[in-house]
Amino acid sequence: MPDNHTEDGLPDILLDILRCPADKAKLEYHEEDDTLVCTECGTAYPVEGNIPVMLNPKHGNEEE
Ligand SMILES: [Zn+2]
């Protein structure tokens, strides 16, 4: 039996490294909607296939 309870979602090490680009605060993984949410400003970053997409915060509907 694998002694590893982080098989779902993002590994803790990743959460440790990742910071909100805006304020360098820590991020929190929200499993229910697959987003990383900044503990400081509350910006949610989508996670696609276990890869956090830090360039497209779900702030609004901006598209360039
Ligand atoms: Zn932030």
From TrEMBL:
InterPro entries linked: Trm112-like
Identification of the protein by name: Trm112 family protein
SUPFAM superfamilies tied to this protein: Trm112p-like
Native source organism of the sequence: Salininema proteolyticum
